[in-house]
Design goal:
alpha/beta; Rossmann fold; 7-stranded parallel β-sheet; 6-stranded parallel β-sheet; 14 helices
């Protein structure tokens, strides 16, 4: 098969979808990545090197993850359509909000006859607004929803969703049939050796975005650092990701001055996950957070929110604790409970590891997606 992967940027593909491409290459398929401009100037070079080292060619378009300039975005969409027509894929597999939208529009209006897999792994900042969303954000959400209808109105498609809420939302749409929606919980993670002893470390593993709960974690960590000075609190993720909800550098430096570790992007998160007794992701919305799969695989206890996607990634009170969205006090109290009770933390971490072995193995998830490709190509 000839498989075209379409994404917002190379960083997202390298961290969430590269395993799919590597599997395809090993099976003798031809794969290529079609992507927009850098999401993070500091991370994109690392992502490009990693993707090219795997043998995947990269075709870069003019659109950007957080771009809203109509002229620039229209040009990028046109470039994507032309590039896909030249590649002539059997399968288009798109992911990320803009990747799904633009790939669907380019395929539909460009007359592309390929089967199409839309991977819904979150809906972006437009759909994570709390009360008081701006008129601009509301307008962009309506425009995106209208265009997404056009993008998804294609034959020979499957929509991969990662959680039960998104499955209900997609099957309710009049232009998506129930049999076209497939629930696959996340992109998976490699399951390495059994975890060893843990450090007194609480880890926030995400981009520095308000929608990831960065501010709630930092505020809770400042209080906990004062009460538990022997514990470390680290926020590992890029500072410069192009997103309207990005935390300003000055605020991050303030967290750093308060004793919170903010190393920025960490290429190899393995040692941090291995050391962390607790992983906290108080996100406002996810598809199915890879960070929490990695935390479980590393045997860390988890604190996350009762938000779409996040609630699917743990077994409440068995592998982690669940808190309300945007509730700093609840994040503090959950972390404080785990810090004060090492036996509970260890028990949740061990149960998380067992859950990861059963549910999050990347090898099984990749094989399932390629089975879907085979079915679609034969049916077409």
């Amino acid at each position: 098969m000839r498989i075209a992967y379409v994404s917002n940027n190379a960083m997202f593909f390298a961290t969430h979808r590269l395993g799919l491409a590597e599997y395809g290459l090993a099976q003798g398929h031809e794969v290529a990545l079609f992507t927009g401009q850098a999401g993070s100037p500091t991370v994109e070079p690392w992502a490009e090197e990693k993707i090219r080292a795997a043998g995947v060619p990269i075709h870069r378009m003019g659109y950007a993850s957080g771009g809203t300039n109509p002229g620039v975005e229209a040009k990028g969409l046109w470039q994507l359509g032309a590039a896909l027509r030249r590649f002539r894929p059997d399968i288009v597999h798109s992911a990320s909000p803009k990747g799904n939208l633009y790939a669907g529009l380019a395929a539909r209006f460009g007359g592309l006859g390929a089967a199409h897999v839309f991977a819904v792994s979150g809906m972006g900042y437009m759909f994570t607004a709390q009360a008081g969303a701006s008129l601009r954000q509301t307008g962009l959400k309506r425009l995106y929803s209208a265009l997404l209808r056009q993008a998804l109105s294609r034959p020979a498609k499957r929509v991969i969703v990662q959680n039960r809420d998104d499955r209900r939302a997609m099957t309710a749409l009049p232009f998506v049939a129930a049999h076209e929606v497939v629930l696959i919980p996340g992109s998976g993670t490699p399951i390495g050796p059994a975890p060893g002893a843990k450090d007194k470390l609480v880890l926030f593993p995400a981009r520095m975005l308000y929608d990831k709960g960065a501010a709630e974690f930092a505020a809770a960590a400042r209080r906990l650092k004062a009460a538990h000075p022997d514990w470390r609190f680290a926020m590992a993720g890029p500072w410069d990701y192009a997103n309207p909800k990005a935390v300003p550098e000055a605020e991050i430096l303030g967290w750093q001055a308060a004793g919170i570790e903010t190393p920025g992007f960490v290429a190899d998160m393995g040692p941090l996950y291995a050391a962390a007794a607790i992983v906290c992701l108080p996100s406002y919305r996810e598809g199915f957070p890879k960070a929490l799969m990695e935390a479980a695989a590393a045997g860390a206890a988890v604190v996350t929110t009762d938000a779409i996607g996040c609630r699917d990634a743990i077994l409440p009170d068995m592998t982690g604790l669940q808190v309300p969205v945007a509730d700093t006090d609840a994040v503090h109290d959950a972390l404080d409970r785990l810090i004060a009770d090492p036996a509970l933390t260890a028990r949740l971490g061990a149960a998380g590891r067992a859950h990861a072995e059963a549910q999050f193995d990347e090898t099984a998830i990749v094989a399932r997606i390629y089975g879907l490709y085979d079915e679609m190509v034969v049916a077409r």
